[in-house]
């Protein structure tokens, strides 16, 4: 046996542990204190038979949603969105003049999404931008660019910064919602606000609206996301991951559209409440000055 001479007092009389004595023995603790140890643990997981359990909501029910605008004073507009445990913060800067010499007739839309290092418990997040963040930033831009009247702001740039504080699934939906709310808070002219919703379909014919991280990462599941301008009844983005039959695709899209309408009503009511609150605060300030 090798001796570790880095120790101050190397031990020379130790023996290796014989694990064979513990093989196929059961663990039982009785009142007399006699313990039998079982070290054989079955870790086999069948990905096709993963049990999905939703707490306090059905398969076609959204998680609790919280929205608030004007949370960051430094930006032109900002918003904070919670969907269950998923938390997203968005800040808008602009429209502002660009430093580049090139001239363009419409505003340029820039979007940058970043995960915090503590946002996920399933994967390690680094400070450097990765491909996932770049892909999500591009998808967000594609989803909302059609709703903004860019021709109203020539030779300017609109910068969207999204920070994912906590990731519990449906980050893209929460980010699109937060970006739209922040644009409205910044006073950027739009044809309509964009609402978004996603649905996850499993092999056992379950359709889960507003999926969590555990539901999104099922190996046999497929996901469909729809971004929509409800007032104009126009779809700005459809994203599908995984394989689905044609009939299932239509069913998932219909559920996403219904979810978009529900989220849109929450967004609109939140903006109305915020506007009424600002008007009330102004009236109180005027009364105090008088």
From TrEMBL:
<protein>
    <recommendedName>
        <fullName>Exoribonuclease phosphorolytic domain-containing protein</fullName>
    </recommendedName>
</protein>
<dbReference type="GO" id="GO:0003723">
    <property type="term" value="F:RNA binding"/>
</dbReference>
<dbReference type="GO" id="GO:0034475">
    <property type="term" value="P:U4 snRNA 3'-end processing"/>
</dbReference>
<dbReference type="GO" id="GO:0071051">
    <property type="term" value="P:poly(A)-dependent snoRNA 3'-end processing"/>
</dbReference>
<dbReference type="InterPro" id="IPR027408">
    <property type="entry name" value="PNPase/RNase_PH_dom_sf"/>
</dbReference>
<dbReference type="InterPro" id="IPR036345">
    <property type="entry name" value="ExoRNase_PH_dom2_sf"/>
</dbReference>
<keyword id="KW-0539">Nucleus</keyword>
<dbReference type="GO" id="GO:0006364">
    <property type="term" value="P:rRNA processing"/>
</dbReference>
<dbReference type="GO" id="GO:0071028">
    <property type="term" value="P:nuclear mRNA surveillance"/>
</dbReference>
<keyword id="KW-0698">rRNA processing</keyword>
<dbReference type="GO" id="GO:0016075">
    <property type="term" value="P:rRNA catabolic process"/>
</dbReference>
<dbReference type="InterPro" id="IPR050080">
    <property type="entry name" value="RNase_PH"/>
</dbReference>
<keyword id="KW-0963">Cytoplasm</keyword>
<keyword id="KW-0694">RNA-binding</keyword>
<dbReference type="InterPro" id="IPR020568">
    <property type="entry name" value="Ribosomal_Su5_D2-typ_SF"/>
</dbReference>
<dbReference type="InterPro" id="IPR001247">
    <property type="entry name" value="ExoRNase_PH_dom1"/>
</dbReference>
<dbReference type="GO" id="GO:0000176">
    <property type="term" value="C:nuclear exosome (RNase complex)"/>
</dbReference>
<dbReference type="Pfam" id="PF01138">
    <property type="entry name" value="RNase_PH"/>
</dbReference>
<dbReference type="GO" id="GO:0005730">
    <property type="term" value="C:nucleolus"/>
</dbReference>
<dbReference type="GO" id="GO:0000177">
    <property type="term" value="C:cytoplasmic exosome (RNase complex)"/>
</dbReference>
<feature type="domain" description="Exoribonuclease phosphorolytic">
    <location>
        <begin position="61"/>
        <end position="189"/>
    </location>
</feature>
<comment type="similarity">
    <text>Belongs to the RNase PH family.</text>
</comment>
<keyword id="KW-0271">Exosome</keyword>
